[in-house]
Design the sequence.
């Protein structure tokens, strides 16, 4: 049915809309024929005529065309595709997209579907981008704006309990989780936690770290999520032995060797799930205490040790909002960062 509709729309687009006086144009003749004698595949669809004419558009019909022109990662494309199809399940055609109904839908996503406000905001962002594409291609009217000034997710986020936000682990908790991984015989997970607790690196950064990017005194983090994430992280004294062993024994060029990649080329997916299962067995909450919590632990320890925020930001890989340090400065030197990272300390197991 959808293929027939596309074929008929294309045929209608190619017809001559003009006619001699007193005669019907090709376009008018085709439309009249469709009205009187629709093909069997679309005869039972009351919306078919309007869809062929272009007055009615299936919501997700042009999603692949939109995605093809998007300069984003395959993972982002998959999420965008999923978001638009989620929208189309509730609003199958463009005429059903009314702003008040979209607002109610986003509220339901938070209240009934259990999605986080941040996730709903991402869904809305994809919907807006797709809708702008449809407007640019003159597929939907320019004056139809079902997603503008949509603040449902923002309002919901203000009601989100602080207890639902990601929290840092206490230093002793990091140690106990690493000990649990050791007792479970998961050497890769032990190494992952060890690097994370002494460096503050993201799980993706650790799993993507190659042996060639490890120097005697620092790790070179590249291809990070943000420009500030490209950095040199000093190797803590208590991390040196682990790094020496991992770089010496690696068989595939990665510091943590042998990890499998998912369809997006991400090496952290499987080991990240193992970390999630382990910490859940120990009683830690999903989405509240995660591997990213170790990164927050490192930031907390640096702050409590009196490390200046600008230096900590250069270690962690965060943007610095000030003009002088954030824009003009080249960042803290390795010697200063080394002194700062040596302030990290954890209790003995």
Sequence:
């Amino acid at each position: 049915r959808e293929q027939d509709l596309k074929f008929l729309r294309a045929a209608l687009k190619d017809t001559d809309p003009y006619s001699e006086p007193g005669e019907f144009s090709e376009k008018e003749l085709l439309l009249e024929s469709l009205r009187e004698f629709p093909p069997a595949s679309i005869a039972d669809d009351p919306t078919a005529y309007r869809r062929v004419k272009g007055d009615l558009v299936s919501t997700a019909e042009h999603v692949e065309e939109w995605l093809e022109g998007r300069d984003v990662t395959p993972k982002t494309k998959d999420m965008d595709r999923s978001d638009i199809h989620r929208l189309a399940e509730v609003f199958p055609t463009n005429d059903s997209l009314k702003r008040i109904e979209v607002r109610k839908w986003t509220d339901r996503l938070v209240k009934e579907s259990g999605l986080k406000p941040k996730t709903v905001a991402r869904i809305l962002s994809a919907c807006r981008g797709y809708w702008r594409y449809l407007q640019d291609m003159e597929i939907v009217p320019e004056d139809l704006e079902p997603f503008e000034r949509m603040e449902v997710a923002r309002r919901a986020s203000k009601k989100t309990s602080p207890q639902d936000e990601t929290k840092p682990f206490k230093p002793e908790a990091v140690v106990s989780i690493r000990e649990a991984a050791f007792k479970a015989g998961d050497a890769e997970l032990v190494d992952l936690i060890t690097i994370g607790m002494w460096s503050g690196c993201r799980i993706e950064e650790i799993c993507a770290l190659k042996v060639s990017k490890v120097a005697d005194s620092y790790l070179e983090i590249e291809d990070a999520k943000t420009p500030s994430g490209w950095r040199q992280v000093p190797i803590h004294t208590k991390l040196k032995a682990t790094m020496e062993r991992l770089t010496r024994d690696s068989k595939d060029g990665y510091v943590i060797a042998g990890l499998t990649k998912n369809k997006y080329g991400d090496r952290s997916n499987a080991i990240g799930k193992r970390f999630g299962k382990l910490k859940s067995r120990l009683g830690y909450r999903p989405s509240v205490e995660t591997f990213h919590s170790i990164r927050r632990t490192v930031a907390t320890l640096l702050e409590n040790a009196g490390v200046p925020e600008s230096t900590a930001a250069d270690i962690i890989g965060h943007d610095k909002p000030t003009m002088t340090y954030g824009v003009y400065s080249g960042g803290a030197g390795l010697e200063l960062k080394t002194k700062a990272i040596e302030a990290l300390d954890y209790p003995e197991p």
